[in-house]
Design goal:
The chain is α+β, with helices and mostly antiparallel strands and 479 residues long. The protein has 3 domains: 106 residues, Thrombin, subunit H; 130 residues, Efflux pump adaptor protein, beta barrel domain (Elongation Factor Tu (Ef-tu), domain 3), CATH 2.40.30.170; 120 residues. The protein has 8 helices and 22 strands. Helix 1 runs antiparallel to helix 2 and helix 4 runs antiparallel to helix 5. The radius of gyration is 61 Å and the shape is rod-shaped. The two termini are 108 Å apart. 16% of the residues are buried.
C-alpha cells in the first residue's frame, strides 16, 4: 500500500466522537533489510555488515576514520555469504551514502551489481523473508543457463515516418479470400440443388442415327468389296459386287441362242440368193417364202439381243450401292462368300441429324412428356446441345438394324426409350456418330425450364448473328 492506515478505535459515548484515523507515510525503502551474517573485506581487513539488502549495506566496526572518508567515495568490497553449505563470494563496488562518526557507522550503496550477484542475494533474502525452500543449487543452475538477451530500451518509430493512413492489406486479402470461398460454396450449393431437385439427369443414353440393313437380292457369291468400313461415301457408290450363277448361265444361254439364230439367218440368206439365181426372179414363190423366214429370224435375233442386254443390266443391278451419303457400319461377309437371297450383308448408316436414345425407368418416365426441352452433354467432345423429346415408346421389339444400337445393361429396369431430336447445324452433325455416350438433363421444374429456354434463345440469336455476318455486304451507291 502507498499509504499505511492505522485505525485506532476508542470508546465513544453516545453523541460524542466515534473514530479517530491516523495517517502515516509509506516506507520509502525499496528492498527488504536483513541482519544475517555478511562478511565484508576491504584492503585485506574484515568487517561485519549490521544490516544489508539488495540496495546496499551498513558497516558498524569501521576502524579507519583517519582516511578522510566522505560521502560519495567508491569502495571495493569482497562479499562472503555462507548459506546451505555454499560460500557465496563475489566482488562489488559500493558508494558511501551516509556517515555517522559518533556511532562509528556508515552506509554504502551498490554501484554496479550484476544480474548473477543480484539473483544470489535475492534468493538468500527470499529464504529468510518468505520461507521459500528452493535449493540454492537449483538457483545457481538457473542463473548459469544461457538466456538470449532482450533489449528493454523502447524503440518507438518516429512520428514523422509514420503514414497518415495505413491500408489494411492483411484484412483486405482475408476478406477477398472469404468472399471467394463464400461465392464458391454458394455456387456449389446451387449446382447441387439444381442437379438433384430441379432437373432430371440420366446417363443411360447414346447418340443414334438411321441404320439400314443391306440385303442380298439373289443367290450368288460376293466378288468384290468396293467400300471400307467406317469410311464416308456418297450416294450411289458401289459397296459390294455380287455374282449370280443362275444369271451367268442365262447370259451364256442367251449368247448361244443369238449365235444360233445368226447362223440360221446366214443359212436362210444363202438359200434366198440361190432361189433367186435358180428361178431368175425375186418374185417367185420360193424367194418370197425365204424372205419371210429371213425377216422372222432377224426379229428373233433382235429379241435375243434385247434379252442379253436385260441380263447385263440386271447383272449391274446386283451390285449393292450406297442408299445415301453415309458410311458402312458393319460388313457380315467378305469377298468370295456365298450368299442367299434375302440374307443380310451388312449395315449402312446415313449422314442425317442424329437423335439421342435415352433409356429411363417407369418412375423417371412420369416426369417426361413430349416436346419437353432437354440439354444433351456429349462426353467425348465435351459439348452441349439443346433438344426436345420427340417420341416415348416401350422398347420391346428389336429390329435387325438395331442389333448394333446402344442398349443399357439393366434394360429390364430401363425398358422405356425416349427419343430426343437435337438442335444443331450441319457442321456439328458431321462430328457425331452413332453410339457415343451422352448425358441428358430434362427440365422438370419451372426454374430449369427457364434456364434451358434462355440458353435456347441465346443459341438461336447467336446463329442469326453468325448468318448475318456470313452474308456478303452489298455495294453502297456512291454520290
Amino acid at each position: 500500500m502507498d499509504i499505511a492506515i492505522a485505525i485506532e478505535i476508542r470508546k465513544a459515548t453516545r453523541g460524542s466522537q466515534g473514530l479517530e484515523i491516523t495517517r502515516e507515510k509509506a516506507c520509502q525503502r525499496l528492498h527488504h533489510r536483513v541482519a544475517t551474517p555478511l562478511n565484508l573485506y576491504n584492503d585485506g581487513r574484515g568487517y561485519t555488515a549490521v544490516d544489508w539488502s539488495l540496495g546496499g549495506f551498513r558497516v558498524s566496526n569501521w576502524d579507519r576514520w583517519n582516511n578522510e572518508l566522505k560521502a560519495g567515495d567508491p569502495l571495493s568490497w569482497k562479499f562472503e555469504l555462507p548459506f546451505q553449505g555454499f560460500m557465496i563470494a563475489f566482488d562489488v563496488v559500493a558508494r558511501v551514502v551516509r556517515i555517522d562518526s559518533e556511532k562509528g557507522q556508515f552506509a554504502c550503496q551498490f554501484i554496479d551489481l550484476d544480474e548473477r550477484q543480484a539473483e544470489l542475494m535475492k534468493h538468500f533474502i527470499e529464504q529468510l523473508i518468505r520461507g521459500a525452500m528452493t535449493p540454492l543449487k537449483d538457483t545457481i543452475l538457473r542463473i548459469d543457463s544461457p538466456v538470449t538477451p532482450v533489449s528493454t530500451e523502447p524503440n518507438p518509430s518516429p512520428l514523422e515516418q509514420l503514414p497518415v493512413s495505413r491500408i489494411p492489406t492483411r484484412m483486405v486479402l482475408m476478406s477477398v479470400v472469404y468472399i471467394t470461398l463464400g461465392f464458391g460454396l454458394l455456387s456449389l450449393l446451387m449446382v447441387t440443388v439444381y442437379d438433384n431437385f430441379l432437373s432430371l439427369k440420366v446417363n443411360t443414353a447414346a447418340t443414334s442415327t438411321p441404320v439400314e440393313s443391306i440385303v442380298s437380292m439373289v443367290d450368288g457369291r460376293i466378288t468384290r468389296v468396293a467400300s471400307i468400313v467406317d469410311q464416308q461415301i456418297v450416294e450411289g457408290t458401289t459397296l459390294l459386287t455380287i455374282e449370280s450363277p443362275q444369271l451367268i448361265k442365262q447370259i451364256a444361254d442367251s449368247k448361244s441362242n443369238i449365235e444360233q439364230k445368226k447362223l440360221e439367218l446366214e443359212a436362210q440368206r444363202k438359200r434366198y440368193t440361190l432361189a433367186i439365181e435358180t428361178s431368175g426372179s425375186v418374185t417367185s414363190k420360193e424367194s418370197r417364202l425365204l424372205e419371210i423366214d429371213i425377216d422372222l429370224i432377224e426379229q428373233e435375233v433382235r429379241l435375243a439381243m434385247q434379252d442379253l442386254l436385260a441380263f447385263y443390266a440386271y447383272q449391274e443391278d446386283l451390285s449393292v450401292l450406297a442408299p445415301g451419303d453415309g458410311r458402312l457400319v458393319h460388313l457380315l461377309h467378305e469377298r468370295g462368300a456365298v450368299i442367299k437371297r434375302g440374307e443380310t450383308l451388312g449395315f449402312f448408316e446415313r449422314n442425317e441429324t442424329p437423335v439421342v436414345d435415352v433409356f429411363v425407368t417407369d418412375q423417371e418416365a412420369r416426369l417426361i412428356h413430349l416436346d419437353q426441352i432437354t440439354q444433351v452433354h456429349l462426353l467425348s467432345l465435351d459439348q452441349h446441345w439443346l433438344g426436345y423429346v420427340s417420341d416415348i415408346m416401350k422398347d420391346t421389339l428389336l429390329a435387325p438394324s438395331q442389333e448394333y444400337a446402344y442398349r443399357p445393361d439393366n434394360v429390364s429396369q430401363r425398358s422405356i426409350k425416349v427419343r430426343i431430336k437435337l438442335k444443331m447445324g450441319d457442321t456439328d452433325r458431321v462430328k457425331l456418330r452413332s453410339g457415343l455416350p451422352v448425358e441428358v438433363r430434362f427440365a422438370t421444374s419451372q426454374i430449369s425450364q427457364a434456364v434451358l429456354n434462355y440458353l435456347s434463345n441465346k443459341e438461336l440469336s447467336n446463329k442469326e448473328h453468325s448468318q448475318i455476318d456470313a452474308q456478303p455486304m452489298s455495294p453502297q451507291p456512291t454520290l
